[in-house]
Design a protein that fits this description.
Shape: elongated
Strand content: under 5%
Largest sheet: none
Order of helices and strands: HHHHHHHHH
Number of helices: 9
Length: 189
């Protein structure tokens, strides 16, 4: 009954009848994942300024860390509402795509001489994909480009502390080397 009500509201072309007991959406329906991937693909063929805007728009579709499980105390049942995510490895396929797009948009803004926008994109990206070394590195570079050594130190320290809290290794060699380079060298601002 619920599907029939949805079909009446959306139209049969968007929610066709299921002949094999599996519901599907019609070809005119796109998910945020589809739109994200289309924008990322389009950005790869654009000049830097347009690519940065397009990638930023793709990241607008990501509204938080992907597939976060609700706190068990907030749920009435003990089941995993996203078990299909784990079964189909969606996190391991989706998170790297988000991280790559986020890192690229920050790099583009640095190349375009807009370190403040690179910082904004880098900060936003770490909310979506925390602990990603490439994002940490580009964010440190963006802060350095603004001449903000304290922020470089803060980003690196927060990253190292977060890894320690998770019982993970120390920051990647490239991250630690970049931090030492930025800490000891002149700022690029």
């Amino acid at each position: 009954n619920a599907v029939n009500k949805c079909r009446d509201a959306l139209g049969r072309r968007h929610l066709p009848a299921a002949g094999d007991n599996h519901y599907r959406v019609g070809p005119g329906v796109a998910t945020d994942v589809d739109l994200f991937e289309r924008r990322v693909a389009a950005a790869a063929r654009m000049p830097p300024a347009r690519a940065a805007e397009t990638l930023s728009g793709a990241l607008d579709l990501v509204r938080g860390q992907i597939f976060q499980y609700p706190d068990r105390q907030e749920r009435k049942d003990e089941t995993n509402p996203y078990s299909w995510v784990s079964l189909e490895n969606w996190i391991s396929r989706t998170e790297p795509k988000i991280a790559a797009a986020a890192q690229r948009v920050a790099e583009l803004y640095l190349e375009l001489g807009e370190p403040a926008r690179a910082v904004a994109e880098g900060e936003r990206a770490l909310q979506l994909v925390p602990h990603h070394p490439g994002l940490v590195e580009v964010l440190m570079q963006a802060h350095d480009a603004k001449g903000d050594r304290l922020a470089v130190h803060r980003v690196y320290s927060e990253h190292a502390e977060a890894l320690e809290r998770l019982d993970l290794d120390e920051p990647a060699e490239s991250t630690a080397a970049l931090y030492q380079q930025l800490r000891s060298g002149p700022t690029t601002a």
